[in-house]
Amino acid sequence: MNATLKKILDRVKQRSAATREAYEARMVAASQDGPNRKVLSCGNLAHGFAACGKEDKAALAGSKVNVAIVSAYNDMLSAHQPFQSFPEVIKEALQDAGGVAQFAGGVPAMCDGVTQGQPGMELSLFSRDNIAMATGVALSHNMFDAAVCLGVCDKIVPGMLMGALSFGHLPVIFLPAGPMESGLPNKEKARIRELYAKGEIGRDELLECESKSYHSPGTCTFYGTANSNQMLMEFMGLHLPGTSFVNPGTEMRHALTYHGAQLIASQTQLGKDYKPLYKVITAEAIINGIIGLLATGGSTNHTLHIIAIAKAAGIEVNWDDMAELSEIIPLLARVYPNGAADVNHFHAAGGLGYIIGQLLDGGLLCNDVETVFGSGLEDYAKEPQLVEGNKVQWSQGTKASLDREIVSPLAEPFSQHGGIMLMEGNLGRSVVKTSAVAEEHLVIEAPAVVFESQAAMQDAFKAGELHKDCIVVVRFQGPKANGMPELHKLTPPLGVLQTLGHKVALITDGRMSGASGKVPAAIHLWPEALDQGPIGKIQNGDMIRFDAKSGELNVLVEPSEWARRTQAERQFRSDFGMGRELFSVFRDQVSSAEQGASVFFKVES
Fold it and tell me: How does DSSP classify residue 524?
């Protein structure tokens, strides 16, 4: 193992010793009861299998395995629409293996793509913790020996995993749906969006473009948070190897779903290979997830989610750990928005299996881990193949990149550093996704232009007020203020300004996520404006130095002048409408960005 990697891993373990020990003790205590149904009264159990057939009732009354299905299915969200058929496949697989599967519960599944720039986006991040609670409710009936989680998109997979970790004495597997087939090329989509932002085409042309991009069941094909989730589940050992980017509706997808259901059923306390979730999600698994994020240039949302997931498992990681890992983890993938390829092209070029193999060969992953597939992460350098028509087996994946424009060998990476960097200075701490930003745009010194909303910034752009070198500051967008929405309505106008030759950057206490593109953006800034963060003292015209090479983020104001300034008062509130009033308790309770922006793990400053 690389010496720096070992140092960081040891530091995380030491920092987490007390909380991890307490978590493991809870899980061991929960697992000592054996099959959960044995503690149920006859009345409890009768309610639990009242709707089952005669054979399933007999199995559940005895000692047969019962697997919970927790699903994010809905038929509005393309990534989750394929899950409609998964429960029947899982039930068939369990029946063939002599067990039972019950649909334990559903969780919310909102789409950030639908809510971008809309009031509903202010519920998005909080939906993660809501999903965690819904997963807990689904598993709370004490009927189950293992669980299958069906989820793909942005807050759904992290939320399901956080909820499942409260039931970490159960074996758990995640079975994805896969990406839609490739549509309109990503460069063309970006070009048309910028034309619309400049007013050169109308809404009809834009809608035609978007419809050709997002056109069928499956995950959106760019490498945003949804597909970064799939990467994370493979790097952390909760998927079957090579399953992330297999298209829905294919024979391979069906075979992987069937196999995964039977595999997790074999890992319960009723069998010989008991493998509870808490033994899979360890400090090593969390570190591997961070490494995967850096090596693939994944979503900045995971600088929040990984921290929250880790806390749910009693593990403490922070942005310093991520930044130090970024210094030794090279960027091995170019997938849109970090390149022209989509995830289908990435998968065909070697995909996650190739990258895992390269990192393992370089000592840049923790291989001493338990996974749902076996022991050791080297299994995840393998790829699935269909045999005998409908069965799946794994063979060694490619040892060479099949497209050097998309995936690179460790010896010749796209960059020596990972795709995410820590920014800090007198404005606080934030992260920046550097993997999609050209070298000449990484350092900017320019005057601030301050806004409180995306709409205000767009109005200024349309009025021609931003056609200059500037650093756009959008504040009161943090988790306490309004739930920390993604701010992608800013991306097209900022891209236009950059294309016109202006030096531009963004600073915000909100989010931009996995679709962050060519404009440098210091996001997740904390303390946030509503929490007396320095961003609340910035005034129009203040010079700001934004250096994504050194990690410097400073406002260049005379210290005595800065000390005299008071916090700006919030001019715009959005506490009601589109369900936002239902989440007021979340806004009051939520932790800072670097603490995972969670209502479960609040740390007082």
Answer: E
What is residue 59's predicted lDDT score, i.e. its pLDDT?
A: 87
Neighbours of 62 (CB within 10 A): 9
Give residue 374's Cα distance to chain centre. 24
**Positions of the chain with pLDDT under 70:** 33-36, 514-516, 602-605
State how far the Cα of 555 lies from the Cα of 552, in Å rounded to an integer: 10
Query: How many other C-beta atoms are found inside a 10 Å radius of the C-beta of residue 324?
Result: 16
CATH number of 507's domain = 3.50.30.80
Nearest by Cα to 394 from 234, 248, 281: 234
pLDDT given for residue 238 in this prediction:
98
Residue 63 confidence (pLDDT):
84
Give the tens place of pLDDT for each residue, 89-132: 999 999 999 999 999 999 999 888 788 888 888 888 999 999 99
Torsions phi, psi of 282, nearest 5? -115, 180
CA distance 453 to 463: 16
Give the other-Cβ count within 10 Å of 581's Cβ.
9
Cα–Cα distance measured from residue 82 to residue 436, given in angstroms and rounded to the nearest whole number: 31
Residue 274's pLDDT is what? 95
Torsion over CA: 194, 578, 592, 23 (sign): negative
> Domain range spanning residue 85?
3-181+216-396
Q: Give me the number of domains the chain comprises.
A: 2
What distance separates the 2 farthest-apart alpha carbons in the chain?
79
Task: Assign residue 185 a region (left: φ > 0; alpha: ψ between -120 and 50; beta: otherwise).
Answer: beta
CB 245 within 8 A of CB 228: no
Strand order across the 100-106 sheet: 100-106, 66-71, 146-150, 172-174
Residue 481 lies in a domain: yes
pTM for the full predicted model: 0.94
Check the annotation: does 111 bind a ligand: no
Choose among 112, 71, 314: nearest CA to 224: 112
CA distances from 378 to 173, 368, 369, 394, 510 (A): 18, 10, 10, 12, 37
Q: Give Cβ neighbours of residue 151 (< 8 Å, ≥ 6 apart).
A: 71, 72, 80, 107, 109, 131, 157, 159, 160, 174, 176, 229
**436 in a structural domain:** yes
DSSP string for 164-187? HHTTTTS-EEE----BPPP-S-HH
For residues 16 and 139, membership in a common domain is answered with yes
Quick one: CA torsion of 315, 318, 321, 326, rounded to 10 degrees? 120
Distance (Å, rounded) from C-alpha 9 to C-alpha 163?
24
- What pLDDT score does 203 carry? 80
391-396 and 382-387 beta bridge pairing: antiparallel
Last residue of a domain, one of 342, 362, 396: 396
What pLDDT score was predicted for residue 515? Answer: 56
Pairing status of strand 504-508 against strand 470-474: parallel
How distant, in Å, are the alpha carbons of 63, 272, 373, 374, 529 from that of 268? 11, 8, 14, 14, 48
pLDDT tens, 468-520?
999 999 999 999 999 999 898 898 899 999 999 999 999 999 998 755 678 99
Is position 220 annotated in a ligand binding site? Answer: yes
- Judge contact between 428 and 526, C-beta under 8 A: yes
Sequence-ordered alpha helix ranges (H) in 218-250: 225-235
